[in-house]
Amino acid sequence: MTAGDRLRAIPSWQVTLGIALLALGFLIAAQLATEGPRVRYTTQERTPLLETADELQAEQDKLKARILELRAQIQSVEGEGEGAEDLVRQLNARLEQARIAAGLIALTGSGIVLQLEDSPEPVPPDGNESDYLVGSRDIRRLVEELWAAGAEAIAVNGERITPTSAIIDIGSSLLVNSAYLAPPYQISALGPGDLYDRLSASPGFVDFVRARGEGYGIRISLAEPESVDIPAFVGTVTLRYSRPIASPSARPTAGPSGVPGG
Amino acid sequence: MHRRRSQLTIAAVAFVLGLLVVVQLRSQAGPSGLAQLSSQDLTILVANLNAHNDQLRREGSTLDRELATLVQNRSRGDVSVDEISADLVRVRAYAGLDPVAGPGVTISISGPIDGSGVEELINELRNAGAEAIAVGGVRVVTGVVVTGAPGEVQVAGSPVGADGFELEAIGAPDKLTGSLTRSGGVIAQLAATLPEVVVTVTPMDRLGLPATTRTLVPAHGRPRL
């Protein structure tokens, strides 16, 4: 009996059933693989966590919108000082400067945008997967290089970097200020027109491109748009442990009036 | 009869098959880019979001009260000099334009640490809620970075003591200390990569940090309206 004869001998419904069972087996295997040993949690415990994280993010967006709205209202009421009193005018001018210094005012001006993306290269069997992903250390390193090169304001995916900004890893993503960020990461920096020339002259930046870009395939790209927008910091500026010390430096350090030059 | 039974079998198999396809697709699609996080990472994220949302809520309440006072003063025809001054003091302290005092930690560092090692410590302090930081007596504000090869640390381009220097931070002393010294934390990592560096954390009841000497007003940007 040949194979052809054998095949013909099997009723067609058995063939259909066989194929269906094969597909079933494949799907069961796929299902088990996605919940396999790498992921040691059940959907029962994971789903509530995902939902909670989503709700908290939505809540955060609302809280931030509210803070921005309140700030705008406060600024406008404070600014209504009728222009009559010099003291109020001067206080408001100083407050505007302090807000700019604290990162509470969105800025626009010359600058550059650096983009970092995970490596497209396959991780070698003896390699470490995290080396091929963009991590908080990469972002911190570039932010430091940009400050050193003369950047005056920086944001990562729209999160303003302030004196209290931490940049930490959450799995393969980041937490900057209070926001959860996922790749690709765009670091926008406001600064002098030759900011990129200064940056690329830094041995630290050259090392970074060599080690992370050429070494692990992290994709680093640059844009030099006509102007760069840096959003305001939306977070708390109320210090709970620090008390300001009255001192001579509490007097205006910068010119009390006018908009900073552009 | 035979044919009828086979049809039933196929129908049953198709039903299970369809069910599995749906389950499979659902388990692969997660909401809002959070799907690639493990349960452990998700737990960390939820804890962080909770803490930060509390902070944002408190800031909202502070601003609410401030606005209410301003509006009340205006309706009485008063100019809110006190409120504007208080706002000014608050924002200047945050930016580092005024000296500040409060509890915190002093971190004594000796041995050949490099600039990025100090930056790692600073990042951990910020993550633990540090409100103001100084390195070698220089207030760390936006634009100030710690650089340099091992043993040649510079703060904003100026060398700090080669025999050792101090990193000071204002915040909750127990939280800052715990965060820095936890097992597998930043100091443990430094000890592994730079074994000759000695880092000592001391909680302090009161620290005074200087103001920055920078004006922090951008020369290349202007407020976006």
Succession of helices and strands of chain A:
HHHHEEHEEEEEEHHEEE
What's the level 1 CATH class of the largest domain in chain B? Alpha Beta
Specify the structural class of chain A: alpha+beta
Q: How far from one another are the termini of chain B? A: 80 Å
Rg of chain B (C-alpha, Å)? 27 Å
Integer tally of domains of chain B: 2
Number of discrete helical segments of chain B: 6
Describe the protein.
The complex is a heterodimer of chains A (262) and B (225). With 262 residues, chain A is of the alpha+beta class. Chain A has three domains: 3-34; 43-102; 107-230, Protein of unknown function DUF881 (Alpha-Beta Plaits), CATH 3.30.70.1880. Chain A has helices spanning 3-9, 12-34, 43-79, 86-102, 136-148, 195-200, 203-216; strands at residues 107-109, 111-117, 153-156, 159-160, 167-170, 173-176, 179-181, 185-190, 219-223, 228-230, 243-244. In chain A, the strands form three sheets. Chain A has a five-stranded antiparallel beta sheet with strand order 4-3-8-2-9, with helices on one face. Chain A has a three-stranded antiparallel beta sheet with strand order 5-6-7, with helices on one face. In chain A, a hairpin with a 2-residue loop joins strand 5 and strand 6. Chain A starts with a helix and ends in an 18-residue tail after the last strand. Residues 35-41 and 248-262 of chain A have low confidence and may be disordered. Chain B is α+β, with helices and mostly antiparallel strands and 225 residues long. Chain B has two domains: 39-95; 100-209, Protein of unknown function DUF881 (Alpha-Beta Plaits, 2-Layer Sandwich). Chain B has six helices and nine strands, in the order H-H-H-E-H-E-E-E-E-E-E-H-H-E-E. Chain B has helices at 2-28, 39-75, 81-95, 115-127, 173-181, 186-193; strands spanning 100-110, 132-135, 138-139, 146-147, 154-155, 158-159, 165-170, 198-209, 221-223. In chain B, the strands form two sheets. A five-stranded antiparallel beta sheet of chain B has the order 3-2-7-1-8, covered by helices on one side. A three-stranded antiparallel beta sheet of chain B has the order 4-5-6. In chain B, strand 4 (146-147) and strand 5 form a beta hairpin. The radius of gyration of chain B is 27 Å and the shape is flat. Chain B starts with a helix and ends with a strand. The relative contact order of chain B is 0.13. The interface between A and B is large, with 120 and 107 residues.
